[in-house]
Design brief:
By secondary structure, this protein is an alpha+beta fold. It contains five helices and four strands. Strands 2-1-3-4 form a four-stranded mixed sheet. The chain is rod-shaped.
């Protein structure tokens, strides 16, 4: 027996309602899944952005720390170099003052003659030759030639005392080579045609003292507190 028109309509409405409900459920499920995917993607983007920002911050922090360290090191080096330069300037000033004082002492002829004798003998003891040429500044030619005999006697006497041997040395003033005034004073001894020399000028001796005694000079000028 066929369905009446009313029953058929009800069945169609029931099926339509079922289909709509299923569609709504599917739609809700799709919307829920889409919302979840959106939230997950959003969280992923947020986390990646946070990670990127943290990395950028760490990199900037490291860069700033490196720049600070470099600037600090540069400042320390500059201060150290400035201190070294200032100390060197003080030492140079001390050397200059010593030269000035020594130059003034040369006005004492008796003192300078005794010093020249000692310088000539000391140089000759390094050369250990019987024929030695003596060079000096042009201004010292007269006083140097006047002390050569005394220097010869003192040299022979020293050798005699130290070794018991009798050894003579002949000092000759070398007028062919003039020692520059910058040498301050003193003598340069030579032998074997000038191939071997001994610089016993006051300038050379002062420079040697300044070089050898630099640690002690620094200690005196710049004591560590």
């Amino acid at each position: 027996m066929g369905l009446s028109e009313i029953e058929a309509n009800k069945q169609v409405e029931s099926m339509a309602a079922f289909i709509l409900n299923e569609a709504q459920a599917k739609s809700d499920a799709i919307r829920t899944k889409a919302d979840e995917d959106f939230e997950n993607e959003k969280m992923k983007i947020v986390e990646n952005s946070k990670k990127k920002l943290r990395n950028e911050f760490e990199n900037k922090k490291k860069k700033v720390a490196t720049e600070v360290a470099i600037n600090k090191s540069t400042a320390v080096n500059r201060a150290r170099l400035r201190m070294i330069a200032e100390r060197q300037e003080v030492i140079q000033r001390v050397s200059h003052e010593a030269r000035e004082e020594l130059s003034q002492r040369l006005n004492d002829q008796a003192w300078y003659k005794g010093l020249l004798v000692d310088l000539i003998v000391q140089g000759a003891l390094q050369l250990l030759e019987t024929q030695v040429m003596v060079r000096c500044r042009e201004a010292d030619a007269s006083i140097v030639t006047s002390v050569l005999p005394q220097a010869q006697s003192k040299y022979a006497e020293f050798i005699k005392q130290q070794t018991g041997a009798t050894t003579d040395v002949k000092f000759t003033y070398d007028h062919t080579v003039v020692v520059p005034d910058s040498a301050l004073g003193g003598v340069i001894l030579s032998c074997h045609g000038g191939r071997i020399t001994c610089d016993n000028t006051l300038g050379a001796r002062l420079q040697l003292v300044m070089e050898n005694d630099k640690p002690e000079i620094r200690k005196q000028l710049f004591p560590v507190h």
